[in-house]
Amino acid sequence: MKINSFNDFYPYYLSQHRNGICRLCHLIGSLGVLTLLGYGLATAQYMLLLWIPVLGYGFAWIGHFVFEKNKPATFGHFNYSLWGDWVMMKDILTFRIPLLGDLPEEFWTTASSSSEEAE
């Protein structure tokens, strides 16, 4: 599959997140990253910021290896995958895609409007 833009990538990214528990793990990790970032900066405990990748990727990889049973897209498309995490979180929080349950095929076979916004 040739990927030239985030618009090309995002449907693929969603296809790798069909399992609702995997998406929940991503959401927990992403919200945890924002919380840790805010707390670390607000309290000047900058060493806590070193835990950001562990928290973010830890939850995401549990979602992939345990529930989705696939390899995270991060390994092949690091930048797009990182951006995809935040776009997917936004799409979940704005109810554009469901948090739990299987992700319907319509979400990962065509580009979503949110991927167009991300470019």
Description:
With 119 residues, the chain is mainly α. Helix content is 65%, strand content 0%. The two termini are 19 Å apart.
SSE diagram, text form:
Layout (H helix, E strand, L loop, with lengths): L5 H10 L4 H23 L9 H17 L9 H16 L11 H5 L3 H6 L1
Task: Provide tags for this entry.
single chain; 119 residues; mainly alpha; disordered C terminus
Question: Would you kindly provide a brief summary of this structure?
Answer:
The chain has helices spanning 6-15, 20-42, 52-68, 78-93, 105-109, 113-118.
Mean pLDDT: 86
Helix proportion: 55-70%
Query: What class, by secondary structure content?
Result: mainly alpha
Question: Major β-sheet, in short?
Answer: none
Q: Which of globular, elongated, flat, extended, rod-shaped describes the shape?
A: globular
Q: Please trace the helix and strand order, writing H or E for each element.
A: HHHHHH
Number of helices: 6
Q: Roughly how many Å is the radius of gyration?
A: 14 Å
**Oligomer kind:** single chain
Total number of domains: 1
Can you tell me the residue ranges where pLDDT is under 50 for at least 5 consecutive residues? 111-119
> Proportion of β residues?
under 5%
Q: Give the tally of β-strands.
A: 0
Instruction: For the record, give the distance between the C-alpha atoms at the N and C termini, rounded to a whole number.
Output: 19 Å
